[in-house]
Amino acid sequence: MTIALAYAMGGEIESLLKSTDARLLETVCGVPIYEIEPGILAYAGGIGKVNAAMSAQLVIDRYHPDWIVNAGVAGSFLDVPIGTVVLASSFVQHDVDTTAMGDPIGMVSTVNKIEFPTDGLEQAEAILDRLGVEYITGKVATGEAFMTRGERADFIRRTFAPTLCEMEGGAIAQVCLRNAAKYTALKTVSDRLTTELNKEEYFNYGEAMEKLNKIVLPFAQALKSES
Fold it and tell me: Which residues of the chain have pLDDT under 50?
C-alpha cells in the first residue's frame, strides 16, 4: 500500500519534511518527490489545476500510489473559524463552462461528471475521530483563480454550494478517477469568501500548515495500515 501526499507549494510541505526523516527521491519536471517513510510519499506539484493534474499523473505513473491525499489551505464559504480542518466529501470545478454546447455548468467532458466524490469518506471520518481531530466535512470547489470576496465568489457559492474554494483538488480528483486511484483531501481554512462575512482575522500560513501536517501524517499512516 502506497499513499502519496499532494501539496501545491513547497511552503506547505516544509514542516512535514522537517519533522520526519524525509528524503528526496527525485525532482521531475520541477516536481520534488519525497519518501516520508516506507509506503508514504509526498510531493509539491505547483499551484493551479494544470500543475496539479500534471504532477498527479507523473507521481501515479512513476510510483503507482493506491491513494492520493491532498493537503493545503482553502477559502471558506461558511462562517467557521480560521484554521478549521475540513475533510473533503467531493470536488467540483467551478471554472468549467461548456453551457454554450448544452452542458450543465461545471460538467467536465470526457468523464462527463460535475461532482467528484472522494473515496472512503466514512473510513476517513473514523480515522480523524480516533485521532481526536476537530473537523467538518464538505464539498470543495476548484478553479484557476485565487478566490477573494466578490461577485465571482458569490456566484460559486450560489451555483455549487461548496464549503471551500481552492485551486488544485478538483484536478487531482479527475486524474485519480481516470487512473482508478483513490483520493481524498484535508484542508485548513485560510480566509472567508462571502461578502456578508466581513470579519478580518490574522492567518499564519506556516503555523496553519504545521498544524495540518501534524494531522495529515498520522491520517496517512492509519489509512495505509487499514487499506
Answer: none
